[in-house]
Write a structure and sequence with these properties.
By secondary structure, the protein is of the alpha+beta class. The protein is built from 5 helices and 8 strands. Helix 2 runs parallel beside helix 4 and helix 3 packs across helix 5. Bound molecules: 5-S-methyl-1-O-phosphono-5-thio-D-ribulose and zinc ion (ZN).
Length: 202
Protein backbone atom coordinates (compact mmCIF):
# COMPACT_ATOMS: atom_id res chain seq x y z
CA UNK A 1 0.00 0.00 0.00
CA UNK A 2 1.12 3.60 -0.67
CA UNK A 3 2.60 5.47 2.31
CA UNK A 4 0.78 8.32 4.06
CA UNK A 5 2.70 11.07 2.24
CA UNK A 6 1.93 9.53 -1.16
CA UNK A 7 -1.75 9.12 -0.28
CA UNK A 8 -1.94 12.76 0.83
CA UNK A 9 -0.21 13.88 -2.38
CA UNK A 10 -2.68 11.84 -4.45
CA UNK A 11 -5.69 13.27 -2.60
CA UNK A 12 -4.36 16.84 -2.94
CA UNK A 13 -3.94 16.18 -6.69
CA UNK A 14 -7.52 14.91 -6.96
CA UNK A 15 -8.77 18.03 -5.18
CA UNK A 16 -6.92 20.36 -7.53
CA UNK A 17 -8.24 18.52 -10.58
CA UNK A 18 -11.81 18.42 -9.29
CA UNK A 19 -11.73 22.10 -8.42
CA UNK A 20 -10.44 23.01 -11.91
CA UNK A 21 -13.35 21.03 -13.31
CA UNK A 22 -15.86 22.85 -11.08
CA UNK A 23 -16.80 19.71 -9.16
CA UNK A 24 -15.86 20.92 -5.64
CA UNK A 25 -16.95 24.56 -5.34
CA UNK A 26 -15.89 26.43 -2.19
CA UNK A 27 -15.47 23.92 0.66
CA UNK A 28 -17.78 21.30 -0.88
CA UNK A 29 -16.58 17.71 -1.18
CA UNK A 30 -14.44 15.50 1.03
CA UNK A 31 -11.78 12.88 0.37
CA UNK A 32 -10.25 9.95 2.22
CA UNK A 33 -7.85 7.03 1.81
CA UNK A 34 -7.59 3.83 3.82
CA UNK A 35 -4.42 3.46 5.92
CA UNK A 36 -5.05 -0.03 7.31
CA UNK A 37 -7.88 -2.32 8.38
CA UNK A 38 -9.06 0.14 11.03
CA UNK A 39 -7.90 3.62 10.02
CA UNK A 40 -8.20 6.21 7.27
CA UNK A 41 -6.81 9.60 6.31
CA UNK A 42 -9.64 12.09 5.76
CA UNK A 43 -9.96 15.77 4.97
CA UNK A 44 -10.64 18.11 7.87
CA UNK A 45 -14.02 19.82 7.82
CA UNK A 46 -14.38 23.14 6.07
CA UNK A 47 -11.23 23.29 3.97
CA UNK A 48 -11.15 24.31 0.32
CA UNK A 49 -10.69 21.10 -1.69
CA UNK A 50 -8.79 22.83 -4.50
CA UNK A 51 -6.23 24.23 -2.05
CA UNK A 52 -5.54 21.28 0.24
CA UNK A 53 -2.27 21.03 2.18
CA UNK A 54 -0.91 18.10 4.21
CA UNK A 55 -2.14 19.80 7.41
CA UNK A 56 -5.72 19.51 6.13
CA UNK A 57 -5.72 15.72 6.61
CA UNK A 58 -6.21 13.79 9.81
CA UNK A 59 -6.23 10.15 10.82
CA UNK A 60 -9.50 8.70 12.09
CA UNK A 61 -10.69 5.23 12.94
CA UNK A 62 -13.50 3.55 11.03
CA UNK A 63 -16.01 4.70 13.64
CA UNK A 64 -15.11 8.25 12.60
CA UNK A 65 -13.08 9.13 15.72
CA UNK A 66 -10.00 11.28 14.95
CA UNK A 67 -6.78 10.05 16.58
CA UNK A 68 -5.63 13.59 17.34
CA UNK A 69 -8.18 16.19 18.43
CA UNK A 70 -6.39 19.05 16.64
CA UNK A 71 -8.97 19.45 13.84
CA UNK A 72 -12.48 18.32 13.21
CA UNK A 73 -12.86 15.56 10.62
CA UNK A 74 -15.21 16.07 7.64
CA UNK A 75 -18.84 16.52 8.56
CA UNK A 76 -19.53 13.51 6.32
CA UNK A 77 -16.90 11.21 7.86
CA UNK A 78 -19.46 8.50 8.64
CA UNK A 79 -20.26 8.09 4.92
CA UNK A 80 -16.58 7.25 4.35
CA UNK A 81 -16.56 4.89 7.35
CA UNK A 82 -19.59 3.03 5.99
CA UNK A 83 -17.81 2.28 2.71
CA UNK A 84 -14.53 1.14 4.29
CA UNK A 85 -16.42 -1.07 6.72
CA UNK A 86 -18.62 -2.50 3.96
CA UNK A 87 -15.73 -3.59 1.73
CA UNK A 88 -12.13 -4.13 2.84
CA UNK A 89 -11.09 -3.72 -0.81
CA UNK A 90 -12.07 -0.06 -0.83
CA UNK A 91 -8.92 2.05 -0.53
CA UNK A 92 -10.20 5.57 -1.27
CA UNK A 93 -13.47 7.50 -1.24
CA UNK A 94 -14.06 10.78 -3.10
CA UNK A 95 -17.09 13.09 -2.85
CA UNK A 96 -17.94 15.85 -5.35
CA UNK A 97 -20.60 18.57 -5.74
CA UNK A 98 -20.78 19.16 -9.52
CA UNK A 99 -23.50 21.08 -11.37
CA UNK A 100 -24.49 17.95 -13.33
CA UNK A 101 -24.69 15.63 -10.31
CA UNK A 102 -26.61 18.25 -8.33
CA UNK A 103 -29.16 19.00 -11.08
CA UNK A 104 -29.75 15.33 -11.95
CA UNK A 105 -29.99 14.18 -8.33
CA UNK A 106 -32.61 16.83 -7.55
CA UNK A 107 -34.77 15.60 -10.41
CA UNK A 108 -34.46 11.79 -10.54
CA UNK A 109 -34.50 8.93 -8.04
CA UNK A 110 -31.76 7.07 -9.88
CA UNK A 111 -29.56 7.85 -12.88
CA UNK A 112 -29.55 5.11 -15.51
CA UNK A 113 -26.31 5.02 -17.51
CA UNK A 114 -26.11 2.78 -20.56
CA UNK A 115 -24.18 2.56 -23.80
CA UNK A 116 -21.25 4.71 -22.62
CA UNK A 117 -17.70 3.54 -23.35
CA UNK A 118 -16.63 5.04 -20.01
CA UNK A 119 -18.89 2.60 -18.15
CA UNK A 120 -15.86 0.30 -18.39
CA UNK A 121 -14.21 2.36 -15.64
CA UNK A 122 -16.86 1.08 -13.20
CA UNK A 123 -16.37 -2.18 -11.27
CA UNK A 124 -17.28 -5.39 -13.08
CA UNK A 125 -18.09 -3.76 -16.45
CA UNK A 126 -16.14 -4.78 -19.55
CA UNK A 127 -18.24 -3.34 -22.38
CA UNK A 128 -20.17 -0.21 -23.33
CA UNK A 129 -23.14 -2.55 -23.85
CA UNK A 130 -24.06 -2.45 -20.18
CA UNK A 131 -26.37 -0.56 -17.90
CA UNK A 132 -25.96 0.67 -14.34
CA UNK A 133 -28.26 2.71 -12.15
CA UNK A 134 -26.62 5.14 -9.77
CA UNK A 135 -29.13 5.44 -6.90
CA UNK A 136 -30.11 8.75 -5.37
CA UNK A 137 -30.56 8.98 -1.60
CA UNK A 138 -32.54 11.75 0.02
CA UNK A 139 -30.26 14.39 1.53
CA UNK A 140 -30.08 14.27 5.31
CA UNK A 141 -28.08 16.38 7.75
CA UNK A 142 -28.16 13.38 10.11
CA UNK A 143 -25.12 11.69 8.57
CA UNK A 144 -25.35 8.57 10.76
CA UNK A 145 -28.90 8.01 9.51
CA UNK A 146 -27.83 8.65 5.90
CA UNK A 147 -24.90 6.21 6.29
CA UNK A 148 -27.31 3.58 7.63
CA UNK A 149 -29.61 4.06 4.61
CA UNK A 150 -26.64 3.67 2.23
CA UNK A 151 -25.46 0.59 4.10
CA UNK A 152 -28.88 -1.08 3.95
CA UNK A 153 -29.08 -0.39 0.20
CA UNK A 154 -25.55 -1.72 -0.40
CA UNK A 155 -26.33 -4.94 1.39
CA UNK A 156 -29.21 -5.44 -1.06
CA UNK A 157 -27.17 -4.18 -4.07
CA UNK A 158 -23.50 -4.96 -3.39
CA UNK A 159 -22.55 -4.14 -7.00
CA UNK A 160 -23.64 -0.48 -6.61
CA UNK A 161 -20.75 1.42 -8.25
CA UNK A 162 -21.37 4.83 -6.63
CA UNK A 163 -24.27 6.85 -5.25
CA UNK A 164 -25.78 10.30 -5.34
CA UNK A 165 -27.38 12.36 -2.58
CA UNK A 166 -30.23 14.53 -3.81
CA UNK A 167 -29.27 18.17 -4.40
CA UNK A 168 -25.93 17.43 -2.82
CA UNK A 169 -23.41 15.30 -4.66
CA UNK A 170 -21.66 12.10 -5.66
CA UNK A 171 -19.83 9.48 -3.58
CA UNK A 172 -17.49 7.19 -5.53
CA UNK A 173 -14.68 4.89 -4.45
CA UNK A 174 -11.95 2.58 -5.65
CA UNK A 175 -9.12 0.34 -4.54
CA UNK A 176 -6.69 3.27 -4.82
CA UNK A 177 -6.96 7.06 -4.94
CA UNK A 178 -6.22 6.93 -8.66
CA UNK A 179 -8.96 4.40 -9.34
CA UNK A 180 -11.49 6.38 -7.28
CA UNK A 181 -10.48 9.54 -9.20
CA UNK A 182 -10.90 7.81 -12.58
CA UNK A 183 -14.35 6.66 -11.52
CA UNK A 184 -15.33 10.17 -10.45
CA UNK A 185 -14.04 11.49 -13.79
CA UNK A 186 -15.99 8.85 -15.73
CA UNK A 187 -19.20 9.35 -13.73
CA UNK A 188 -19.06 13.15 -13.91
CA UNK A 189 -18.50 12.88 -17.68
CA UNK A 190 -21.53 10.58 -18.06
CA UNK A 191 -23.67 12.79 -15.78
CA UNK A 192 -22.75 15.80 -17.93
CA UNK A 193 -23.75 13.83 -21.05
CA UNK A 194 -27.04 12.78 -19.43
CA UNK A 195 -27.82 16.35 -18.41
CA UNK A 196 -27.21 17.66 -21.93
CA UNK A 197 -29.11 14.78 -23.56
CA UNK A 198 -32.09 15.31 -21.27
CA UNK A 199 -32.06 19.06 -22.00
CA UNK A 200 -32.14 18.27 -25.73
CA UNK A 201 -35.27 16.18 -25.26
CA UNK A 202 -37.15 18.82 -23.24
C1 LIG B 1 -20.35 23.77 3.42
S1 LIG B 1 -21.31 23.06 2.23
C2 LIG B 1 -20.75 21.39 2.02
C3 LIG B 1 -20.82 20.50 3.25
O1 LIG B 1 -22.06 20.62 3.91
C4 LIG B 1 -20.60 19.06 2.84
O2 LIG B 1 -21.62 18.60 2.00
C5 LIG B 1 -19.28 18.82 2.19
O3 LIG B 1 -19.19 18.19 1.15
C6 LIG B 1 -18.05 19.32 2.82
O4 LIG B 1 -18.09 19.17 4.21
P1 LIG B 1 -16.72 18.96 5.02
O5 LIG B 1 -17.14 18.99 6.47
O6 LIG B 1 -15.82 20.12 4.64
O7 LIG B 1 -16.15 17.68 4.57
ZN1 LIG C 1 -21.02 17.17 0.55
Amino acid sequence: MANDAQLIEDLIGAGRLFHRRGWVPATGGNFSARLDAAHMLITASGCHKGELAAADFLVADLDGRPLQATRKASYETLLHCQLYRFDRGIGAVLHTHSVANTVLSRRYEGIRLSGYELLKLLPGIATHDAEVVVPVFENDQDIARLAAAVDAHMHRHPQMPAYLIAGHGLYAWGATVAQARWRVEALEFMFECELRARLLKE
